[in-house]
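Take the subject:
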Amino acid sequence: FGDGTFIVGTDMAAGTYRNAGGSGCYWARLRSFGGTVSDIIANDNVTGSTVVTISASDRGFTPNGCGPWPK
């Protein structure tokens, strides 16, 4: 998967993902979809490849500008 907002357990499986890298990559693990800071479990702005572990208890994951996220 690439950019977007994904529901864990529906659109994507929990697990560890590594992106290919991108400049201006932002990602966030979400506890809900309310659009507030309190909905974010963890997030980061990175340049280059990064590894993110999505827990089965996460509700969602939203990456932007990161490229593909193979498991």
